[in-house]
Amino acid sequence: MAEKKMLRVTQVKSQIGRKYDQDQTLKSLGLGRIGKTHDIVDNESVRGMIFKVKHLVTVEEL
């Protein structure tokens, strides 16, 4: 079985003052405060969520 690619997503900016849907997207990515990091399987839906909040997070491929 092939290894699944993973992404490490880290929140670097606050969600305060952002749109409601961006706040909910951060929560669905497992984030919620500055400095929090979460490892997520790389797929199209996750890439779409990251694109929506790309100004609030940094992404590394593992």
Share of residues in helices: 25-40%
What CATH calls the topology is: Ribosomal Protein L30, Chain: A
Low-confidence sequence ranges: none
* The CATH superfamily title: Ribosomal protein L30/L7
Mean pLDDT reading: 94
Seen as an oligomer or otherwise, the chain set is single chain
Number of strands: 3
In angstroms, what is the radius of gyration? 11 Å
What does this entry look like structurally?
This protein has 62 residues and is of the alpha+beta class. It has one domain: 2-Layer Sandwich (Ribosomal Protein L30, Chain: A). Helix content is 29%, strand content 26%. It contains two helices and three strands. The protein has helices at 20-28, 44-52, and strands at residues 6-11, 37-41, 57-61. Strands 2-1-3 form a three-stranded antiparallel β-sheet, with no helix packed on it. The two termini are 18 Å apart. The mean pLDDT is 94.
Short characterization:
The chain has 62 residues and is of the alpha+beta class.
Search tags:
62 residues, Ribosomal Protein L30, Chain: A, 29% helix
